[in-house]
Write a structure and sequence with these properties.
By secondary structure, the chain is an alpha/beta fold. Helix content is 29%, strand content 21%.
Amino acid sequence: MNTPSVCLNHINVGHPEQRILNDINLIVEPGHFLGIVGPNGAGKSTLLHTIAGLIEPDSGHIDLFGECLSRFNRRKLLAQTGFLNQKQETPFMLPMCVRDVVALGLATYPTPLWNFSKRREKVKQALVLTDTDDLAEKDYRSLSGGQQQRVRLARALATSPRLLLLDEPAAALDTHAQELLYKLLRHMCDEQGTAIIMVEHDIAAISGYVDSVACLNTRIHHHAMHGETIPEEVWHAMYGDHMHVVAHDSHCIGCQSQHENTGDT
């Protein structure tokens, strides 16, 4: 059995009377593509930041690649982890070309120039993967929102990570670019054994690509594997009784087909 890429053990974040994350237990194996869905304020971004070592849990512990994440090994473990956080509204003001923005994702970026050729090759590979190699010499500030998002993804991929954490990576991308992104991520899981945890608000958009979906609202209410239906009460527990479950086809993780969903009218 492979060593899990991520193992979360009873993770709690926030005051005991108002938890942001409550008793989170989760295992993600190499090559597994996990989608996380939930309402605004559910703790999805907090979960990714905690795995990335940017937020320290109030209790519980995190294992990355079989080692407990601590201040002694975090540099080594996180060097094997790519992280794309939510795109902020504040523009990136420094006058940097795209190639240098991507290079910032490399742990070796501040090292002496004798590493230059290897570093340049890694940047080139990341640009090609995200179809941004033609933008390499352009000023990052001049790019469209969708182009900037793909460059930010290239920065996360530059280290050839064993674990990739993505917070709504399809934001600002058109439908075609979203599909290409999800296919790339699926390829990374299948061919490179990359473990991916991706926060996404649209379960229908990702269900054809992910291996499982975790339903998060402070705690994990349900973890559905491919082909499994998420009970309607789970959706109500996450979003409230006012929501209405709309049926999709049977290929969608967590969704029921019309003939299965007898509660629809």
